Amino acid sequence: MAAAYGLYSHIQSNKRRSIALLLGLFFLVYVMVFAGALLAEALTYDASRDWLLHQAWHDLIWAAPLTTAATIGWIAIAYLFNQSLIDAVTGGREVTRQEQPRLYNLLENLCISRGITMPKLKVIEDGALNAFASGLNQRQYSITVTTGLLDRLDDAEVEAVLGHELTHIRNGDVRMLVIAVIIAGVIGFFAELVFRLMFQGGLRFGGGRSGDGDRGRGGGGIAIVIALALVAFAWLLSVVIRFALSRKREFLADAGSVELTKNPDAMITALRKIEGRGELEGAPSAVMEMCLDNPREGFENLFDTHPSVDRRVAALVQYAGGHDPGPLALPDLTEPTGPDEKAAPAEAPDGPAPSKPPLLPSDPPAVLGGGTPAGPWGPPRGS
After folding, report:
1. Which of 25, 31, 108, 236 lies deepest, with the highest CB count within 10 Å?
2. Does the active-site annotation cover 165?
3. Which residue of the set 165, 250, 259, 289 is catalytic?
4. Of residues 126 and 246, which shows the higher confidence score?
């Protein structure tokens, strides 16, 4: 068996649960269609509740092929254009080794150490401290970081962040989360459409055509209430499931970063520096859900997409042997020293400022013989 990324058994179990959750999201699309059919029948006929439910079920069966095709089409469009849309709303741009040698070398060496295909590297000109991985296949996968993160984190911490995002790609987290967001988007769009019709169009209770004798009468009001309850339930459940997908994966990605870098303290200090400083102004919630840290919260953690930094750090301290420095205060790099002066770098009290540690070499070390690298990333004993 190949060396595991993080806790292998937990990752496999998490993948199975994620597939089940995504199938549940797909099922919710049909729930929404049934609710829409029930609402339409209740507004068209004045009939009994049972008759309206029966008709809505037949409508669902009739519409199921079209619903399936439309959902698959929606996913196909997102598959082709999701990365372009993400770049458009965040301002991310792809960079080369010449433009970002420090960042490029750190990512390249991590990929070589594990035999991973190197994803694209993108940078957002933003003072926030954050990063995220995106894409649905090998050709699309990319890791995006902010300039604020590059300015505030040292090499070891940036390497830990890159290891976290690489683990998301390797474990299939990115693909699963994007698909979940796509399907949840369909449900959210339909829910919003129904409620807009409800409150702006002025739906009428019992105003439909009178049914025949075997249809009964007076069930329209109850049917409309049932339909609206199904819409609200499907939307709420899709949001909770989508957020749960993100929460469970952050612990594994942190562990995978430590496995790659062998430096739990770097992951911990990176999280402490990023804590509360990751808000990307103007970025939609779907993008923030993919980020290393999402400061947006709601409803007593029910709608939080990430576990708290305290919980993530506590897990790294307990299981990886790291040390927690506690919340970290960062200096304001933009604060000027005078009305017309720019901030100058501080000097050490007893001499010149110490030099920064050297960057990684431009060319990664070659593996002699072209085989699997020696060390912890080689094949396990007895394989």
Report:
1. 25
2. yes
3. 165
4. 126
